[in-house]
Design a protein that fits this description.
Chain lengths: 442, 275, 155
């Protein structure tokens, strides 16, 4: 047996002692002399025209150093994934003319204490003309739905189409040949990361014109690069200090806290801290939006799935953030790890006036896995077949072609199922135990 | 808006004086579990906060009836062997730390679906003692709640204690929530029955939490039990009656429809397990 | 509101702070006394990461007005164990991988300490019950319970 070094060893956490003695430093533990506190004023309605933001009373409140509005943002319109060519820029750092979701950040009060900032924030007067909001995927896709995005419809456009398409073969032919047509609709409702540590950022303006940014982002380079674009500052001027994240799970990747904190620090010339409240973390951080997946399978009497059609809708909320990427990943996984010669997938990334959605553990894939496996069980039940056997039968093998037009390599589904079956003492016929991922001869 | 004044009276008289002076401008602070979250986010509106922490309202006395001071904390209440029904209900509220801070009377003022202490207190025929500078009066708990977040207290009246008659009969309490602990109720049920030597029910109390705008007695359900033995039919009748007379609401935890159904299920379970 | 002076014992040492009476104990400890082991997770008493002991009893410091600390004994994690002198609970948390991001650990260990002071041999049920007010989003709780059981077993 080769010497594997550390693999297979149980290694104590390098930061374990720090955690259990409370010495691990999180962003909220960062403090600078003269540090100010930031509190955000947020939109109280789902959709509207932002006609006026009157910050005069807040600015005049004793202890307030500044109020940051859209006018203070050097480059207000961005999207995080512009870094990988996703566009157009659809999200403002601070709302300037439109409100696209309830909770959208409008202006930030920066004050001597958290309490003063909270009190002054209540003095900001907003003049918003409410518009009828689009609150579900169905409303967004209906005939005559108000186009809430600037490009005229309510979906992300994947190469000119309102959905990401993945297809191979001909599903209609497959359905015609199939012995059974089995359908199912599966929905995941919105859910949230709920890290115990809320999003927190401290920015210190340095005397040499640079910024030191402490953030509990999970994605340092997303933050750093987007900050540069939003602040219109060269890379070398932004020093990003990350560190221990008190729970991320994909919820701290959205660059929604650092830009305004940085602008507040530059505007006041003082270090600024913005620590999200628990309420903000629930209502205003990215969630996972709804996924609804419609499956239509053509299945033979012996259990082979010969055609699979999937239409999937994801409610991305008001802005792109990571959803175009997530839905694409989702689309690539919707057929499942099964050998199906005819596949047609359309995955829609739909915008509504809801809390923007983003990544969460297994981004885009876990909703697909849920739907796929419940559908597999449904197929098994419909045919009176054992759910293990249905999967051994349909599992893809090395050398077969996936719906994404890639040849399967290094498949391990079969071996994994065998190990699981052994662990739980499942009774399987011999052919399941004999199956291998490389037993397909072409 | 900002709180202007903080007062911490060192006696009941001091507390009543403060109430008298500031009236509706005063926000009473007992354990802090309901008020401090608002203070922490600058969401309070009254200009004066009056803390009852030192007003001496946390004593427990038993002399025939049991008198529990308004600011007795829930941990203490959850250890009261003389009132197992109330102890059981209190034990299901919040967490250990919250119970160390939250008070029995404070629990009467929390928004539904919270407020499980009152569910047990209703089944125990508790009375609220309300005091003002003009004197003291007793309000039966089932007359205390008058609407959503509304009660029978007059301006400048303070709840100083809960009075519970020495309990008779068998009791049971179940709280059904989305988690096993530290969660608000989908439905909570308290029951107390007194039977004669033949096992016929002579007295019945069924109280429901999270099944209306405030904790309520299911009086039709009670009537369905009186005069009968505690048998399957009587239990079914009581459960049905309770389902029909409750008026639950929908919230993030459960729909009105589901709560109604669960009232039926849990009234049945509470009665089946009563001892 | 007028500022007040509040004196209390912090991990055995007398301290005094000048604060607004409704400033919460968590913020006073963190900002005025630099006790950073007390964490801010929610400000609503729901997550338990700010748990401290007041006269040996767990309270959520985010909901404790500083005036309530007057004359009391406050214990934070530093008073339970330190880098050079780990409490068996801290050693057990470390050994059992009971801390991942670490944000809940301070509150968890503080409550566990109070539990063991009240009841040196709690059942698993009692351990779970005692921790009901402390949220962990990383470990799934099992390693935390195992860590505490390990300490009670070896006592």
């Amino acid at each position: 047996m080769k010497q594997l070094g550390i693999v297979g060893e149980s290694v104590k956490r390098r930061d374990g002692i720090a955690h259990v003695t409370g010495q691990t430093r999180y962003v909220d533990d960062v403090s600078y002399p003269g540090m100010l506190w930031l509190k955000m004023v947020r939109a109280p309605v789902h959709r509207g025209i932002l006609k006026k933001v009157d910050v005069s009373k807040a600015e005049a409140y004793p202890g307030v150093h500044a109020v940051v509005t859209a006018k203070d943002v050097p480059n207000n319109w961005y999207t995080i994934l512009c870094l990988i060519g996703v566009g157009p820029n659809d999200e403002p750092v601070l709302a300037d003319t439109e409100i696209m979701w309830r909770g959208e950040p409008i202006c930030a009060v920066v004050a001597e204490s958290e309490e003063i900032a909270l009190e002054a924030a209540q003095l900001v007067e907003l003049d918003i003309e409410e518009l009828p909001p689009v609150m579900t995927v169905d409303e967004a896709l209906a005939e005559g739905a108000p186009a809430i995005k600037k490009w005229g419809n309510n979906t992300f456009m994947y190469e000119g189409k309102p959905y990401r398409r993945v297809f191979i073969g001909d599903v209609e032919e497959g359905f015609a040949k199939a012995d059974h047509i089995i359908e199912g609709t599966y929905q995941l409702n919105p859910y949230d990361h709920v890290p115990v540590e809320t999003q927190t950022c401290v920015v210190k303006p340095e005397p040499d014109g640079r910024l030191t940014v402490h953030s509990n982002t999970q994605a340092l380079y997303f933050t750093k690069d987007n900050l540069g674009i939003i602040l219109q500052m060269p890379d070398y001027k932004i020093r990003l200090v990350g560190g221990t994240v008190g729970g991320g799970f994909g919820g701290k990747v959205d660059v929604v806290i650092e830009p305004v904190t940085a602008i507040a620090a530059m505007k006041t010339g003082r270090p600024v801290k913005w620590r999200w409240t628990r309420t903000e973390e629930f209502r205003n951080s990215s969630t996972v939006g709804m996924y609804r997946m419609h499956y239509k399978d053509g299945v033979m009497n012996d259990g082979r799935i010969i055609a699979r059609q999937v239409i999937s809708y994801h409610d991305a909320g008001a802005y792109h953030r990571h959803s175009p990427y997530g839905v694409q990943k989702h689309a690539f996984n919707l057929a499942g790890p099964y050998n199906i010669p005819n596949v047609d997938i359309k995955a829609y990334c739909v915008y509504t006036n809801r809390q923007p959605s983003s990544a969460l553990r297994g981004f885009g894939v876990t909703p697909a896995s849920f739907a796929i496996e419940v559908q597999m069980d449904k197929i098994a039940r419909t045919l009176g077949m054992d759910p293990w056997q249905i999967r051994f039968l349909n599992a893809y093998r090395n050398g077969q072609m996936k719906a994404v037009r890639k040849v399967v390599e290094d498949a391990t589904l079969i071996e994994t199922m065998q190990a699981a079956a052994k662990m739980v003492g499942a009774e399987l016929p011999e052919w399941c135990w004999k199956a291998r991922s490389d037993d397909w001869k072409g | 808006m900002p709180i202007e004044k903080f007062i911490m009276p060192e006696s009941l008289d001091g507390a009543l004086d403060a109430l008298n002076e500031y009236g509706t401008d005063a926000l009473l602070l007992a354990g802090g579990t309901m008020v401090m979250p608002l203070v922490n986010e600058a969401q309070t509106s009254p200009r004066v906060v009056v803390s009852l922490q030192r007003a001496g309202l946390n004593t427990v006395r038993a002399n025939g009836q049991i008198e529990i001071g308004a600011t007795t904390n829930l941990t203490r209440v959850s250890q009261m062997n003389e009132l197992p029904l109330l102890a059981a209900a209190s034990k299901e509220i919040g967490s250990w730390a919250i119970r160390n801070m939250a008070t029995l009377a404070g629990n009467l003022f929390v928004p539904p679906p919270a407020g499980d202490a009152a569910v047990a207190l209703l089944a125990l025929d508790a009375q609220v003692v309300a005091q003002s500078k003009n004197g003291e009066r007793r309000i039966a708990l089932d007359q205390f709640f008058t609407g959503l977040m509304q009660n029978a207290l007059k301006p400048n009246e303070l709840v100083t204690r809960l009075v519970v008659p020495k309990p008779r009969g068998k009791t049971n309490f179940i709280k059904y929530a989305r988690r096993e602990a530290n969660a608000p109720a989908i439905v909570s049920v308290a029951a107390r029955i007194v039977t004669d030597p033949e096992g016929i029910i002579t007295e019945a109390r069924i109280a429901l939490g999270a099944a209306n705008d405030f904790p309520m007695r299911a009086k039709n359900a009670e009537a369905a039990l009186v005069g009968s033995g505690l048998n399957t039919q009587a239990i079914a009748n009581a459960a049905n009656a309770a389902m029909n007379e409750c008026k639950p609401f929908s919230d993030a935890l459960a729909s009105e429809w589901y709560r109604k159904k669960m009232v039926g299920v849990y009234v049945k379970r509470v009665l089946e397990g009563i001892k | 509101m007028e500022l007040v002076t509040i004196s209390f014992k912090l991990n055995g040492r007398p301290v005094a702070v000048v604060a607004s009476p409704l400033e919460n104990l968590r913020d006073v400890l963190r900002e005025k006394l630099q006790v950073l082991t007390v964490k801010a997770g929610c400000g609503q008493g729901g997550c338990g990461s700010c748990t401290v002991l007041m006269n040996g009893e767990p309270v959520v410091s985010c909901l404790t007005p500083i005036v309530n600390a007057q004359g009391q004994e406050i214990t934070t994690l530093e008073g339970i164990g330190t880098f050079n002198n780990l409490h068996p609970l801290q050693q057990a948390f470390y050994d059992n991988f009971a801390a991942q991001c670490g944000y809940c650990s301070s509150g968890m260990i503080t409550v566990a300490k109070a539990l063991l002071d009240h009841n040196p041999h709690p059942s698993r049920e009692q351990i779970i019950d005692a921790l009901a007010g402390n949220v962990c989003r990383c470990t799934g709780y099992v390693p935390i319970i195992q860590a505490i059981e390990q300490v009670t077993d070896s006592k």
